[in-house]
Amino acid sequence: MTPPKSAIIIGGSISGLLQALQLKRAGTDVLILEQDPSPTRASHESGVSIGPSVLALLKKYDATGTPPAIPAGFLSVAWQTRPRVLNTAWHHDMSNWGSLYLILRANVDGFASDVVPYPPPGRKGDGTAEYKAGRRVVGVEFDRGDGAMNVLHVEAEASRGSRQGMEVKRERAEMVIAADGVHSTIRRFLQVPTTWTYAGYIAWRGTVREDQLSPETVRYFSDRLNFTLLAGSYFITYIIPSETGSVEPGRRLVNWVWYYPVPEGSVAMDTIFTDINGVLHNSTVPGDLLDPKVWSVQKRRYISDGTTPHLAEVVSQTRRPFVTKVGELEASAASYFDGRLVLVGDAFATFRSHLGLASEQAARHCLQMDRVWSGEISQAARDREARLYAAKLLLLNRLMGFLGLGWWWSALKTGLAYASPHHH
């Protein structure tokens, strides 16, 4: 099987863009349909860990030369106010969702931004690539006669009554890659079970520019992934490139995530997820809508005297924290219509965010598809590999969360499940 001559990618986030870049470099003509109407997507100043598969893909296909990540050499643990109870060498590459997205856009469709002001020219043998923002997919069809896929889409923001906006466009391609995330429309169309399960805790998140912090605090968080364990909740902190892709000390961002248990359906949950306009959000309250009163109560209870001064400074200097529910979506079948439609990234399986490896799964899906096209493995073998990796990562992320929160019994059960033979 060779790479398809044409492909439609549903979802223009990191997962979709990694697939688009690989296909474009293989000579495939690619169309990306993204529901978000903003040409740049909302800026996500949030940290992501990028693993070996992402780095391998960028090394092979990136033509911008922009550093995608900041390397961290150590893993450190603080216990409440004790700053270093554990310190061990552990290499990780930490990136910024927004700058990684813009590096990929520059490569895929030549999008210019602060991160890559002058996108590189295409390479010899590249296919074409088009990124259509503001398009909502309303159907996928498989034409058994010639084995092609049809994708139907409309303007995402169109009001139901507007004839023009509701006009259905039809695109045809040899292959469709569904990279439309945890709330995947395509999973729904395929009637794949889509039970997103709440993990029992939420993640408060934020970033602060290094030059807003004292030199001691920056030094304390530099070159490491830092865990701070509190009674019943915990923080992960690390340094990432700025939203404009700068890896220069002073302009980089200190990124933190605070995992905090909140019972589902509780008054506390409703209070946290009700924004400044009184609107209750389902899974995320963006930084500009988070109720400052809710945040100040949360900070007051834990931060000033319950943590290290370095962490207290970072959290109190954060201008626009945001909050999101943590959960997971178990993997299902990975490909449909004789392998012409493949689910990738979070649309296939979503893990709790502890290891920050969502982009690593997405990149692995790219490398696996490449092996299918080169004839090294069959589509069925590739799907099996994807399912096993997802099952393993699901359990590992659960384990990380349980250990950090001090849920020892849950951690023990998960550890036993991870060690059982069918996960290897």
UniProtKB/TrEMBL annotation:
**What PANTHER family does this protein's entry cite?**
MONOOXYGENASE-LIKE, OS06G0597600 PROTEIN
Originating species: Aspergillus oryzae (strain ATCC 42149 / RIB 40)
Q: Which Pfam families match?
A: FAD_binding-like
Report domain 2,6-dihydroxypyridine 3-monooxygenase substrate binding positions: 198-326
Q: What is this protein called?
A: DNA, SC001
